[in-house]
Request: fold
Amino acid sequence: MEMKDATPTPHIGAKKGDFAPTVLMPGDPLRAKFIAETFLENPVLVTSVRNVLGYTGTYQGKRVSVMASGMGIPSIGIYATELFKFYGVERIIRVGTCGSFRTDVKVFDTVLAGSASTNSNWAAQYDLRGTYSAAPDFQTLLEAYQTAQRLNIPCKVVDILSEDNFYSDDPDQFKRWADMGIAAAEMESYALYCIAKRYGKQALTILSVSDSLVTHEATTSEQRVHAFTDMMKVALGSIRE
Ligand code: HPA
Reply:
């Protein structure tokens, strides 16, 4: 049965068909604009509701979109659900930053999130009698990993934590996660991975390490741009139609 077209949605102003099968998703709307204007050919703005900018263009001839997620699980939960459920998007690749918990994951490293743990209650809505383990789409993960190898960009697959709180009341809490092998924290992937699986779609998170909770290393803007470009090359090289 064909579902009634529910677009535009409450949070996305685009029409059905305006998005490519793959949507790259940074947190920051201005970063979405920057990605569209820097890496895509012929980017067209398809939505700007709440200034959450979304564009569709092409990369090496392949149609691709980029739209911001905002910060945190509730925000990416809204956009990922509407893209998968109402716009027919097949794949969301989050491109973001994370804070490292471990000395073997250094600032500016590019990492792929092979799993996401969480301190959020997101999965309670699925009414499962247990703890849901959020994982990416393996094919997308493999293709991103192979893209990094092909481009000679150092890249590790790591386990991450999607936190509800950027500011923690307990500054040592991260060490317990590190003891469980968790390499870094961000605030969105657990929900993104759940939603993709729920709708039979694909998701992957690619992160650039922006800071370290262990070493508190300082970074320059030039270094950050270089690391950001590495992450984008891995993401853009993994696009399928
Ligand atoms: N915690 C959560 N999100 C982040 C961090 C962090 O330390 N660094 C960059 N994004």
In short: The first strand starts at residue 22 and ends at 25. The chain has one domain: 22-237.
